[in-house]
């Protein structure tokens, strides 16, 4: 049996910015990272797509990762933005220089629809760095569509791949195919939108962000201990907010504004090319957040509560 990433919820950490210059807000980041550990996340994914890693300088990426290393004992998966092999290797080496043994794996996107091309890409990264790899299939971000069978071929050929993050809809179909053929953890993403079906299809949990990560953790824990009905009951009160957050082109801005309303980050700014939060949606956002806060307070999510005080 090969090494496999621990099942559960790996929170994808947003990168908070502040002020009109949108400088990285390391204080808010530190608080966010600490909260994930406090509520029982299995691990953290830093510098992912929703961490706006592609909009950060190399120096900023190092500061973000340094903050995560300093503020939590959780294992870390670090995202790699580059699709080309040499720049990807440089990113991995930079992450290793900061995170050292805390680096559980690097998350590398499938960079071609051809299995042989992806195998060469991952093999070169591993030979140059020794890093374990989470293979991410996220065509919305990468622009690459690859079949589940090709992903299976890649993972079978690359013993250093410890997980797959499947984010090509319909995710439950892909996850069912992947888990039937592979002996590594397969995680869903996309803000938990398909989490229940993904668990039924064999997912090991979720590797994603959501403004109420307590709900994802409670859902996966309920699934692990008591099965589908318990998982459904844990997640059900939060589904309207999950759907609201996952709106095309504005999902990142919506999530950041939700986090700001919860008091978990100081500013909801996003960097281009991300779109800013549409003010016309503020009444809906506040309504969904109020429902989620009520669900958390009533004990629908059984993990310790985060701050729910909002800012208008």
Structural description of this entry:
Strand 5, helix 3 (85-99) and strand 6 (103-109) form a beta-alpha-beta unit. Helix 4 (115-129) packs parallel to helix 6 (148-157). The chain is built from 13 helices and 10 strands. The chain has helices spanning 26-38, 58-71, 85-99, 115-129, 139-142, 148-157, 171-181, 195-200, 213-226, 228-235, 239-245, 251-261, 282-297, and strands at 8-12, 17-18, 23-24, 43-46, 76-79, 103-109, 133-137, 161-166, 185-188, 205-208. Residues 300-312 have low confidence and may be disordered. The strands form 2 sheets. It has an 8-stranded parallel barrel, surrounded by 5 helices. The N and C termini lie far apart (51 Å). The protein is 46% helix and 14% strand. The radius of gyration is 18 Å and the shape is globular. With 312 residues, it is of the alpha/beta class.
Number of helices: 13
Query: What integer value in Å does the Rg equal?
Result: 18 Å
First-residue to last-residue Cα separation: 51 Å
Helix content: 40-55%
Runs with pLDDT <50, length 5+?
300-312
As laid out across the biggest beta sheet, the strand order is: 1-4-5-6-7-8-9-10
Mean pLDDT: 94
Q: What summary fits the major beta sheet?
A: 8 strands, parallel, barrel
Strand content: 5-15%
Q: Based on helices, strands and strand pairing, what is the structural class?
A: alpha/beta
Number of strands: 10
Order of helices and strands: EEEHEHEHEHEHHEHEHEHHHHH
Give the overall shape. globular
């Amino acid at each position: 049996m090969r090494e496999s990433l621990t099942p559960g919820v790996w929170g994808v950490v947003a990168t908070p910015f502040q002020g009109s210059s949108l400088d990285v807000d390391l204080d808010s980041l530190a608080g966010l990272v600490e909260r994930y550990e406090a509520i029982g996340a299995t691990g953290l994914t830093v510098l992912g797509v929703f961490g706006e890693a592609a909009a950060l300088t190399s120096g900023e990426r190092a500061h973000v990762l340094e903050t995560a290393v300093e503020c939590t004992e959780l294992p870390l998966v670090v995202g790699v933005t580059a699709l080309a092999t040499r720049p990807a290797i440089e990113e991995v080496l930079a992450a290793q220089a900061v995170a050292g043994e805390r680096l559980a794996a690097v998350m590398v996107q499938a960079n071609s629809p051809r299995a042989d091309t992806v195998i060469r890409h991952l093999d070169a990264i591993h030979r140059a760095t020794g890093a374990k790899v989470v293979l991410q299939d996220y065509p919305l971000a990468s622009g690459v569509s690859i079949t589940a069978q090709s992903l299976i071929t890649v993972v079978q050929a690359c013993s250093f791949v410890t997980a797959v993050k499947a984010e090509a809809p319909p995710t439950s179909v892909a996850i069912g195919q992947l888990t039937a053929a592979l002996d590594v953890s397969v995680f869903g993403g996309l803000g938990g939108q398909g989490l229940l079906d993904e668990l039924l299809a064999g997912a090991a949990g979720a590797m994603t962000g959501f403004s109420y990560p307590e709900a994802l953790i409670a859902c996966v824990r309920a699934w692990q201990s008591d099965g589908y009905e318990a998982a459904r009951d844990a997640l059900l009160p939060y589904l309207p907010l999950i759907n609201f957050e996952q709106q095309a082109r504005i999902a990142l801005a919506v999530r950041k504004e939700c986090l700001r309303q919860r008091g978990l980050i100081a500013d909801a700014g996003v960097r281009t090319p991300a779109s800013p939060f549409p003010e016309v949606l503020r009444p809906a956002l506040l309504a969904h957040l109020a429902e989620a806060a009520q669900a958390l307070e009533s004990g629908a999510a059984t993990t310790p509560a985060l701050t729910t005080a909002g800012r208008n």
